[in-house]
Design brief:
By secondary structure, the protein is α+β, with helices and mostly antiparallel strands. It is about 30% helix and about 25% strand.
Amino acid sequence: MGIHLKNQSQIAKLREANLIVADVLDTLEGAAKPGMSTWELNEIAARRLKQLKAESAFLGYHDYPAVLCTSVNQVVVHGIPRKDVILKEGDLLSIDFGAYKDGWCGDSARTLPMGRITIEAQALVNATRESLERAIAACLPGNRLGDIGHAIQSYVEPLGYSVVRQFVGHGIGRRMHEEPHVPNFGVKGRGLRLSEGLVVAIEPMINAGGPEVFTEEDGWTAVTKDGSLSAHFEHSVAITENGPVVLSRP
């Protein structure tokens, strides 16, 4: 497979796809509230995607049955939208969403508070979001892949959180998952050298407790082993001569 570097026109196409992803996530963030089912959010996303004339990157991917992932509280990632999962006041809802437009893929995720959440939950959300910003700042030509993971790990672990190691970020382009793998942990100065034209989806998944995760019987839903809260943020980022460009930020 190898790593596919993108030129400016291809990055522009990836930007278009990622702006659609951001639009859908904004729509979901405006709609999500206690009392809704996660399936209702899936329906909203599907309708908005149709309006934007784009295709889901998730629906049918290895037989995944929905257009987005909705992961609540101790669910780390890949939570399947369901009619019987009703959002409650105080929940953390992580939404992961990807779309194709004109053959190019966008991918992004964010964790949303449902109503009033605890101070501890808010701190986890803030730390996860900030770790992503620090990882993005490390996306400079000449830096190494390990610098991205190190930026996340070295920020969250001193705060008492743990980095999920079972799932990682990835390259992105004409396919949702391209090389290289982009771990959320690493050693500074180690790994692949970052080059102009590399586009990566960076997605820290941070647990309030231990890093261990198990997958439920549905084959998708990944849950913290100790039942602790988890948060998840993701952006698709292009590495350019002028530094990182966040394609999935409006």
